[in-house]
């Protein structure tokens, strides 16, 4: 897994207030607008291939600005396949650029020109131009779709350049106008290029691991020259190089690596060229150290320095401590002892067969990266220059004191402002992270013009010139675009890669019943890719509050009422005991029923002797329920009446002759499995001492097997339960289990459901990713829920699944399942649980629903694991 090299903890931020430093550029923070919209980039630094008119000259190509005729427009229309028009920005020094924004020409509604697509070219020296490509090698960036919305695009990988060209492209002849902004920060490493032998390919158990520098922007023949690439992209490789591939490109993607087989001298030479002579303090090399795979950090490095034309005779050598204990990737810091140089050549000596680097950074002069918000600029002159309340009667002698006080006040103000900013920033960032993660949108498209404060904010600094009067004037504007991270960019692209998806998206799910008809179609966006945001909210809840099973095509004749194979029960034989739960139109009661045996004779073995009362659950529709609720209730009866399995709660009888309508189902004396297990402990010494009731492992397994068996039956009828969990399993004598459906109606379990917009409640901790994101409920999503139920069972329901995550984080985690970049969190292996059973769980949580086992298979596997 790839991660940012520099994490920014709040603590670090606080520290960095006082030491505004971090050893290297952090792509997550380096997202400042570089001055097209703010004006820091001068008009003369903006140029273009041509202009339509003086009022659409290059200098009007500033994002969010309406000057001139509202944008830069080239003289001619953009033709397919032609790449001659461009808008160029000179940043005057090298910058690390992580994000670009484009905007069409709106001009108060008159303009309607924009670039649908564009290419970025960049140059560090003004002569060699390089086309930017994303990590998959795609060059063309999708731009605007209308003239008024700003579209931001993450540059992944980021680029390092002084000159940037935006080149509109089109698949048909069209007029294009553009306004642009660049986001990033200054490139303080000063590194212009590194030259190194090309990265090699490792063969690991027959599988190739490509350790080439896949984003190198120079020439690659047998060696790499004149470019920058993965060693400077600000992203570190993970400890296990075979896994490090957050971009889904190929294993080993994050690393550049070499084997000693190819280097007879025992070292790899890398040469670094800088923009000017610099006074170097350190070099940090991020190395893999997975010695189990014969990868180690270098044994020794020898660096040569060149300040003017010549290489210094005396090199500098450094040998890091060999580390055969910790396989973690790490930064090795090499002191460069304040050598002045404009080029450095280092020989990295192999310590093992392989050497792999993912980042190399340089620290020189006093240049330090900002980790936090920029300190407020102190407007014009020194803070003391315009003290208000200057009293002419107080003369020169106390002016020093006043100056001092003024200074202090100004400093206090600045500090307060900074603290406020930090608090703000944290709150915002939290909100943003949520917002951004929820935004599983097709593109990272942000409409700033709609005042979407979610992605930018303006910070007004107190202007010392008005302090200490208290009136804050916005003297400088500071905007920062928050990191959304590379992983939020284009899920649709990822989604398209999944073969299952293409088909599935087109099909409708099998979840559609009359009560859940909204769930029946996977929402399909314009481009055929379903979106999270478009997933309809599914209401699983039946009229009396429990979930309702979803069944296949319940035809209307089924609903006509004539085939209800359940008998009417005399209401008076029910004795109310306890309310189990309630829903919008009814309640679920626990009752005792007399004479139930008459109703249960037929194909059914209810273990009761004559005249004994039995416990039943009675779902009761309130008399004042509306017609729809009544229909739903009858449908539920139809569905329930079809279910006859020893491990499924059965409908015993109904009372639909008169109001209130009732549905009488079995109930089991030991209550639900969740409470049952909570009261029990695993067998063991502890339980023995505490004298608590226990359940043996084999009985746990026995119960789980019954759940699987009941679900096997449900799925054989193509019924989808949609809320399988221990709270919905009832326990009878001798650990018998029957699956029920009242969990959702019960207050006791309200914490297990997530309420959406006050309408639907969803058991998100049990739901598969596709149920949450796409509203798809299928047998395969029941299998997922079974995995969670099994987990609950083996942990004795001592905690909620993902108890350490909030509901929002659970949904975020769902997004990780969807993106499948190995960042999803799985429920851990319960301590009681043998490997084989945990494997079953993991199979239930496979991303691809088709790869999940069937209930029959689960049933078999559990049977086998019992012996
Ligand atoms: C750090 O912040 C200062 C003040 O805003 C700014 O001038 C400077 O360019 C920033 N440095 C970098 C590397 O972004
Ligand atoms: C790196 O290796 C991969 C896999 O062989 C290849 O597709 C890619 O083109 C290579 N990239 C470069 C820059 O050599
Ligand atoms: C480099 O910087 C250090 C510390 O700032 C200073 O002591 C040293 O003289 C500088 N070296 C040169 C060659 O300027
Ligand atoms: C490469 O390194 C391994 C492990 O240190 C060593 O056994 C081998 O002899 C080296 N090969 C060459 C060609 O130096």
What can you see in these coordinates?
This protein has 867 residues and is of the alpha+beta class. It folds into five domains: 32-186, Galactose-binding domain-like (Jelly Rolls, Sandwich), CATH 2.60.120.260; 191-364, Jelly Rolls (Sandwich), CATH 2.60.120.1190; 433-504, no CATH class; 536-667, Phosphorylase Kinase, domain 1 (2-Layer Sandwich); 668-867, Transferase(Phosphotransferase) domain 1 (Transferase(Phosphotransferase), domain 1). It contains 15 helices and 35 strands. Strand 11 and strand 12 form a beta hairpin. Helix 10 (697-716) runs antiparallel to helix 12 (779-794), helix 10 (697-716) runs antiparallel to helix 15 (855-866) and helix 12 runs antiparallel to helix 14 (835-844). The longest helix has 40 residues, at 399-438. The radius of gyration is 34 Å and the shape is elongated. Residues 1-22, 372-398, 436-536 and 555-561 have low confidence and may be disordered. It binds 2-acetamido-2-deoxy-beta-D-glucopyranose (NAG) (4 copies). The site of one 2-acetamido-2-deoxy-beta-D-glucopyranose has 6 residues, from loops.
Task: Using the 3D structure, state the CATH architecture of the largest domain.
Answer: Orthogonal Bundle
Q: How many domains comprise the coordinates?
A: 5
Class from helix and strand fractions: alpha+beta
Distance between the termini: 38 Å
Q: Which superfamily, in CATH terms, is the homologous superfamily of the largest domain? A: Transferase(Phosphotransferase) domain 1
Top CATH class of the largest domain: Mainly Alpha
- Cα radius of gyration in angstroms: 34 Å
Unreliably modeled segments: 1-22, 372-398, 436-536, 555-561
Instruction: Tell me the number of helical segments per DSSP (H or I, 4 or more residues long).
Output: 15
| Total DSSP E strands | 35
Q: Give the overall pLDDT as a whole number.
A: 77
Query: Which small compounds were modeled alongside the protein?
Result: 2-acetamido-2-deoxy-beta-D-glucopyranose
**Could you give a short account of the major beta sheet?**
9 strands, antiparallel
**Assembly annotation:** single chain
Gross morphology is elongated
| Helix proportion range | 10-25%
């Amino acid at each position: 897994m790839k991660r940012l090299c520099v994490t920014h903890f709040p603590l670090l931020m606080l520290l960095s207030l006082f030491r505004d430093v971090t050893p290297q550029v952090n792509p997550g923070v380096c997202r400042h607008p570089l001055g097209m919209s703010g004006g820091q980039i001068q008009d003369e630094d903006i140029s273009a291939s041509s202009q339509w008119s003086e009022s659409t000259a290059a200098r009007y190509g500033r994002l969010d600005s309406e000057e001139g005729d509202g944008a830069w427009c080239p003289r001619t229309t953009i033709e397919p396949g032609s790449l001659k028009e461009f808008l160029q920005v000179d940043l005057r020094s090298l910058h690390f650029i992580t994000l670009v924004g484009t905007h069409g020409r709106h001009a108060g509604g008159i303009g309607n020109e924009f670039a649908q697509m564009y290419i970025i070219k960049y140059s560090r020296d003004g002569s060699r131009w390089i086309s930017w490509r994303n990590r998959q090698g795609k060059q063309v960036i999708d731009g605007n779709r209308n003239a008024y919305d700003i579209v931001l695009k993450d540059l992944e990988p980021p680029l390092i350049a002084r000159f940037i060209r935006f080149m509109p492209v089109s698949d048909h002849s069209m007029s294009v106008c553009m306004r642009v902004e660049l986001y990033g920060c200054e490139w303080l490493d000063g590194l212009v290029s590194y030259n190194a032998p090309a990265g090699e390919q490792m063969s690991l158990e027959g599988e190739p691991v490509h350790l080439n520098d896949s984003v190198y922007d120079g020439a690659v023949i047998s060696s790499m020259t004149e470019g920058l690439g993965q060693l400077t992209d600000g992203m570190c490789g993970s400890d296990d190089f075979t896994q490090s591939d957050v971009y889904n490109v190929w294993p080993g993607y994050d690393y550049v690596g070499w084997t000693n087989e190819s280097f007879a001298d025992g070292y790899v030479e890398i040469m670094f060229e800088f923009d000017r002579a610099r006074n170097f303090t350190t070099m940090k090399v991020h190395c893999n150290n997975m010695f189990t795979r014969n990868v180690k950090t270098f044994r020794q490095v020898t660096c040569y320095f060149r300040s003017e034309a010549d290489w210094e005779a005396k090199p500098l050598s450094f040998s890091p401590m060999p580390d055969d204990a910790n396989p973690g990737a790490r930064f090795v810091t090499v002191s460069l002892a304040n050598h002045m140089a404009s080029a450095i050549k280092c020989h990295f000596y192999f310590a093992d067969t392989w050497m792999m680097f993912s980042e190399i950074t340089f620290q020189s002069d006093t240049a330090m990266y900002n980790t936090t918000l920029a300190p407020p600029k102190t407007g014009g002159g020194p803070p003391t220059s315009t003290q208000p309340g200057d009293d002419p009667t107080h003369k020169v002698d106390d002016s020093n004191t006043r100056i001092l006080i003024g200074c202090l006040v100004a400093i206090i103000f600045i500090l307060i402002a900074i603290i406020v900013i930090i608090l703000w920033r944290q709150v915002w960032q939290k909100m943003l992270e949520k917002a951004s993660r929820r935004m599983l949108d097709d593109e990272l498209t942000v409409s700033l013009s709609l005042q979407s404060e979610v992605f930018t904010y303006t910070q007004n600094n107190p202007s010392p010139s008005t302090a200490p009067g208290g009136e804050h004037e916005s003297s400088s504007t500071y905007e920062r675009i928050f990191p959304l991270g590379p992983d939020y960019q284009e899920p649709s692209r990822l989604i398209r890669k999944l073969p299952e998806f293409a088909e599935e998206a087109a099909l409708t799910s099998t979840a559609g019943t009359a009560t859940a008809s909204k769930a029946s179609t996977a929402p399909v966006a314009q481009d055929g890719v379903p979106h999270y945001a478009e997933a309809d909210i599914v209401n699983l809840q039946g009229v009396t509050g429990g979930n309702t099973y979803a069944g296949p095509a319940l035809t209307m004749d089924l609903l006509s009422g004539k085939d209800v194979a359940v008998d009417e029960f005399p209401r008076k034989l029910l004795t109310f005991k306890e309310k189990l739960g309630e829903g919008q139109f009814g309640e679920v009661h626990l009752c005792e029923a007399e004479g139930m045996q008459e109703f249960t004779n037929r194909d059914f073995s209810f273990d009761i002797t004559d005249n004994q009362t039995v416990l039943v659950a009675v779902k009761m529709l309130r008399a004042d329920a509306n017609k729809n609720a009544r229909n739903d209730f009858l449908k539920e009866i139809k569905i329930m009446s079809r279910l006859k399995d020893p491990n499924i709660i059965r409908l015993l009888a109904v009372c639909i002759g008169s109001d209130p309508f009732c549905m009488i189902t079995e109930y089991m004396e030991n209550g639900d499995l969740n409470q049952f297990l909570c009261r029990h402990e695993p067998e063991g010494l502890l339980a023995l001492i505490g004298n608590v009731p226990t359940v043996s492992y084999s009985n746990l397994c026995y119960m789980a097997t019954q759940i699987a068996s009941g679900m096997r039956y449900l799925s054989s009828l193509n019924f989808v339960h949609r809320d399988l969990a221990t709270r919905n399993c009832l326990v009878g004598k001798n650990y018998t289990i029957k699956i029920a459906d009242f969990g959702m109606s019960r207050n006791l379990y309200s914490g297990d459901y997530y309420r959406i917009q006050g309408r639907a409640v969803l058991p998100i901790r049990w739901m598969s990713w596709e149920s949450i994101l796409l509203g798809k409920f299928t047998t395969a999503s029941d299998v997922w829920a079974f995995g969670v139920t099994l987990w609950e069972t083996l942990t004795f329901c001592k905690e909620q699944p993902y108890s350490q995550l909030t509901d929002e984080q659970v949904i975020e985690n769902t997004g990780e399942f969807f993106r499948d970049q190995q960042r999803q969190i799985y429920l851990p292996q319960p301590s009681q649980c043998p490997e084989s059973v945990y494997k079953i769980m993991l199979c239930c949580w496979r991303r691809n629903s088709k790869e999940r086992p069937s209930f029959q298979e689960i049933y078999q596997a559990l049977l086998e694991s019992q012996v």
